[in-house]
Specification:
The strands form 2 sheets. Strands 1, 2, 3, 4, 5, 6, 7 and 12 form an 8-stranded mixed β-sheet that branches. A 4-stranded antiparallel β-sheet has the order 9-10-8-11, sandwiched between helices. The chain has 2 domains: 26-39 and 51-253, Ribosomal Protein S5, domain 2 (2-Layer Sandwich), CATH 3.30.230.10; 259-424, Alpha-Beta Plaits (2-Layer Sandwich). The longest helix is centred in the last third of the chain and has 30 residues, at 299-328. The relative contact order is 0.17. The protein has helices spanning 97-101, 103-106, 123-131, 141-159, 184-207, 219-237, 243-250, 284-297, 299-328, 334-361, 367-378, 406-415, and strands spanning 26-38, 49-64, 74-79, 84-89, 168-174, 253-257, 261-265, 272-277, 383-385, 393-397, 419-424, 431-432. Helix content is 42%, strand content 18%. The protein has 12 helices and 12 strands. Strand 3 and strand 4 form a beta hairpin. It is an alpha+beta fold and 433 residues long. The structure holds adenosine-5'-triphosphate and (R)-mevalonate. Keywords: Kinase, Transferase.
């Protein structure tokens, strides 16, 4: 069904090419970061997790060159947040480069089935692309991982489609702190997948003389983008659960169970959280492996902890539904409603404490995260790590009736060297701008 011809060639300097003068493709979009409220780590073992999108976003801007634009013969990649700006030279006249590089590799990959692709099979090709960049300084691991992911998605997504791509200009920058548990990698993968997916669709639609509907996106296409992002998340995370790419794609608040269900939760009133950066670097892949090793060593103990975490997420999901119903109820007087809302937040805070204590028992907390939880507790808030732990961010849900001065708590956190900011949860997912 698919012809595996895409024109990628990174061989040295090239003469400038003629550009598709009629309609150079361009696209801008943004993707949020995320906070896992309940269920990190246990979600890897099929337990329920609840996550919400953040107001902090990664922004993507992609365009083919305009006619006669200077430098229009090269692919320009600018990953601003990790100080990586590179040029590549593509031979757009060659239409068989993916095949030329290795016909057997992309043969079985189809755009509609990201599960048919595996980045390990493309490692040599991707490394070849990476080596041919224009910088003389060696890439850091952070830069290498980002570039590897971008080329993986480019080669495999474009390689699985019968389109001819042109030199392009690709800018990415983010407000999401990188490697801190806020889903920067999922946000990046969702955005790159969305850009290439739309680029391919545009080329196919244009060929068929159909309308350009770049800004409308169906649930089915979002799902496909999320699945491509999941495929690329495996590069950095090893065995991700799929939670991060799901919440970054769809936004809002999500109940998620691996390989089973994803439910967007109605939240008419935005949850407010205090986000605190421990400034301790963490490694998601290593932390997931650490829990796996602990589970192997103490299967019954760890299994029971995971079941308890599942119960916490289930109970939290019920409380969040109740919260939404209470806010929407027309039957309650204002003071009755506020009282009920207060009770629900109290229960959510108990669940935050349970979850943090269990995460600590899985050895994925860190002394700095514990210090943060202690400061929050002194100020009357309930804190928990979010994401893989071992460092990165913690959060506390801030109830609407919280009557202490939040800026005092932030000051104490700052005096210990922890940045803290108040933010709303549950904004939009992937958005075309
Ligand atoms: N905006 C970005 N630009 C370039 N690379 C990025 C960007 N955001 C993330 N990355 C890549 O993702 C890696 C971070 O992934 P990692 O999983 O360690 O952290 P995270 O996604 O922020 O945390 P978590 O998965 O626990 O939520 C970086 O090392 C980098 O390679
Ligand atoms: C630790 C983990 O549960 C969350 C990382 O953000 C891993 C995963 O779900 O893939």
């Amino acid at each position: 069904m698919h012809n595996h011809s895409a024109s990628l060639d990174v061989d040295g300097d090239r003469p400038e090419h003629s550009i598709d003068c009629q309609n150079p493709f361009s696209l801008s979009l943004s993707v949020p970061g995320k906070v896992i409220l309940f269920g990190e780590h246990s979600v890897v073992y099929g337990k329920l997790a609840i996550a919400a999108s953040l107001g902090l976003r990664t922004k993507f801007s992609f365009r083919e060159y305009k006619p006669n634009e200077i430098g229009n013969n090269k692919v320009y990649i600018n990953l601003k947040s990790i100080n990586l700006m590179l040029y590549y030279y593509f031979d757009v006249r060659s239409t068989n480069c993916t095949e030329k590089i290795n016909p057997s590799l992309s043969k079985n990959v189809t755009l509609d089935e990201p599960e048919t692709a595996n980045h390990e099979q493309f490692r040599t090709i991707i490394d070849d692309f990476i080596k041919k960049n224009n910088t003389s300084t060696p890439l850091s691991q952070v830069q290498y991982n980002a570039l590897y992911s971008l080329f993986y998605l480019l080669i495999v997504m474009v390689g699985s489609s019968n389109i001819d791509i042109k030199p392009f200009h690709f800018d990415v920058e983010t407000d999401v702190t990188i490697s801190a548990g806020l889903g920067s990698s999922a946000s990046l993968m969702v955005g790159i997948s969305a850009v290439f997916f739309r680029y391919i669709q545009y080329k196919i639609l244009k060929k068929d003389n159909k309308e350009d509907t770049v800004k409308d996106i169906s649930k089915k296409d979002l799902d496909l983008i999320s699945r491509w992002a999941f495929s690329a998340e495996k590069i950095i995370h090893g065995t991700p659960s799929g939670l991060d790419n799901t919440i970054c794609t769809f936004g809002s608040v999500v109940e998620y169970r691996k390989n089973s269900s994803m439910k967007l939760m109605e939240m008419h009133h935005k949850l407010k959280v205090l986000l605190i950066n421990s400034n301790v670097p963490k490694d998601t892949k290593a932390l997931v492996a650490k829990v796996a090793a602990l589970k192997q060593k103490y299967p019954t103990v760890v299994d029971n902890i995971l079941v308890a975490m599942d119960n916490i997420s289930n109970t939290a999901a019920q409380e969040l539904v109740k919260l939404d119903e209470t806010y929407s109820s027309k039957k309650l007087a204002t003071d009755e409603r506020d009282c009920e809302v207060g009770k629900i937040y109290n229960r959510l805070e108990d669940l935050v404490d349970f979850n943090q204590n269990l995460l600590r028992s899985l050895q994925v907390s860190h002394p700095s995260l514990e210090t943060i939880c202690g400061i929050l507790a002194d100020g009357g808030l309930h804190g928990k790590l979010t994401g893989a732990g071992g460092g990165g961010y913690a959060f506390a849900i801030v109830p609407p009736n919280f009557n202490k001065n939040i800026s005092n708590i932030i000051e104490v956190l700052n005096s210990h060297g922890f940045d803290a900011k108040l933010t709303d949860l549950g904004g939009p997912g992937l958005t075309f701008t």
